[in-house]
Predict the 3D structure of the following.
Amino acid sequence: MKLLRRLAWTLGIVALTVAAFTIWVIWPGKAPVPPPLVTDPPPPWEQQGATQYIPSVDPPAAAPFTARNEACDTGAAPPGAAAVNAASLTTMVWSPFGRPEVGWEIYAPRIAAEIDTACAPDTRRFAALLAKWQQSRGLKPTGVMDLSAFQPMLTGWHLQRPFVRVNNTGICPGAPLLSGLNTAKPNESYGGKTIQLRPGALEAYRRMVAEARAAGVIQRPETLTIFSGFREPAADAARCERDNNCQGLVRTICSAHRTGLALDIYIATAPGFGPDSSADDNRRAMARSAVFRWMVVNAGRFGFVNYAYEPWHWEWTGEPLLPGVPIKSLSQAGSAPVEPAPSSIAPLRQGTGSAVVR
Ligand SMILES: [Zn+2]
């Protein structure tokens, strides 16, 4: 009798384990390709009679975007909101990703896409659509860009990434076998580096680049070349331990690059910076580039989503992530939190942006 009961228990536990494993394998299932941030017609960044969106550091391309009839100087904007945005765009002091930044120009293309406009951040229409967006989220419709508006946007952008959704459950997705990866062609890699990706991601990348080229936003040979693809977890872990810089914002012990679905793509650089420098000047140069603004509104059609802190980091969502392991079970070397200096006046962390992940 005792033996039977023990047998029943064992069978029960085995059944539960199998069920849990099955659920994990089929979940998140076919990650749905997120809808494009802006639907047809794709928005232009320059329009007749409107303020130019943001001046680009790229040489002007020949009318790369279809004109869109938006009257940027009109709209039901709260009084004064456009003027406040015009000033804060380059002066607001805030810490959306846990470290102080000045202005929100870096995020302006993404915000514009979120509220569905091609108008410049200092226009009445931008403020009016921001107010409408705030209202739709239950926020006070001030029409003014600030942390309280940015935080829910950022959370939504993070959650567009299947990698983040899995990370949020405490799981680090698995890495594919090297034999299952394809290698980018030499002219697709930055500086001749060997770049490997899951085949579907590489194919989607190629379709996107072909369309970007047709749109006229590829203006340098290195534009949209890949400088990092699949990274072996063991090599990443060794680097974390060596450099002790895997605290989460720029690097992490569970990198999206282990999935074979993440790519770092050359967008643009400010003088003196490399394509992966997160210096604000460098990220601002990227935000101003025609190719990034094209990516923000078009990459979603090819299944790519971006990590908002890094204009160069994109993840393909066309196929499910592989089953993973608890993040806690990974080596934590190099992930010790950086203690803020005791004399620090401003809080080091604000907002939800510090949660993830490159
Ligand atoms: Zn990356």
